[in-house]
Amino acid sequence: MSDCFLPRLGGIEVQVDELASVQRSAGHDVRVVTATPGPPRDGLVRVGPRVPWGLPVGGSLRAVLDGFAPDVLHVHAGVVSPFAWRALATCREVPSVVTVHSLWDGGVGALYRRLIGDEVTVSAVSEAAARPIRRALDVPVHVVPNGIDTRPWREIRPWLPTGAVQVAAVGRLAPRKEPFTLLRILRDAGRRVPIRAVVVGDGPAAPAMRRYLRHHRMDGWVRMTGRLTREEVRDVLAAADVFVAPARRESFGLAALEARLAGLPVVAHSGSGVADFVRPEKEGLLGSSAAGLADALVRLVGDSELRHGIASHNGSTEPARCTWPSVLAAFEELYGLRR
């Protein structure tokens, strides 16, 4: 069960869709229940009326449960997840696993304390996401990372550039992703070393970001593409040398994982979920501030041996815990805890 699902696009939507597909391939009987309106699909139940702006309000879950009689309920929750909250409150007779895809603050923990009882197994997508849950609920929190099909990204190998190093960033241009922190990092690094940058994504911050680039005369070397398909994102990564993920409150960082699989060194915040699969000087460099991330980017630009060494490592190894067989096995174990 998930508030958000396709055709909305985001980390939770993609993960729930791909997890259900992998589970069906493994022989499980899976239904995805969502409050997001949209077209019908086999194995998908959309609950609730159509409302303005396509908000995932949702409706009663009783008919769904009575008609399907699930062995286990897997609830996918973010910070504000009214449909997930309703599922946890009304489906207490069904053994449940709740996966938290976001970073909590104190107020969210107080709400979930009323919803999560002994019958619910709790997981999070990273250690960064698990820590505030453990503090708020004082319960075991299992870490099961997001899964990824590695094959499309393994076909990419970073090119060896001539001239300026190409920097890529991919993500929704919204406050939580800190797009202006990204631009400040690029501006700081661009004053010190020759770089070019591509920012992939769209969102409410896009117009102000373009104004920022013009104001600081960065629009000649920073290109904003808007939203791209996953195939087009792969093309961007194929032409890039370094990937930057600036957000502090990134619970996992699927775009960074894709870049790491594509062979790019990743620059990311040390307190984010990206740190679960990016180790300093192994898969990339980490920093604890915007200035630290800019320093890391400058270091990678100036040290081609380090940059190419990390790229070679990333291109020849896989983050085993994030592959779908590993994620599927981890969730099957959690389902078994409550059967």
From TrEMBL:
Which keywords describe this protein according to UniProt?
Answer: Glycosyltransferase, Transferase
Note the InterPro entries from the entry: Glyco_trans_4-like_N, Glycosyltransferase_grp1
Q: Which Pfam families match?
A: Glyco_trans_1_4, Glyco_transf_4
Recorded hits in Gene3D superfamilies, A to Z, give: Glycogen Phosphorylase B
Q: Which residues form the signal peptide?
A: none
Q: Where are the transmembrane segments?
A: none
Question: Where does the Glycosyltransferase subfamily 4-like N-terminal domain lie?
Answer: 10-150
Protein name stated in the entry: Glycosyltransferase family 4 protein
User: From which organism does this entry originate?
Assistant: Actinocorallia aurantiaca
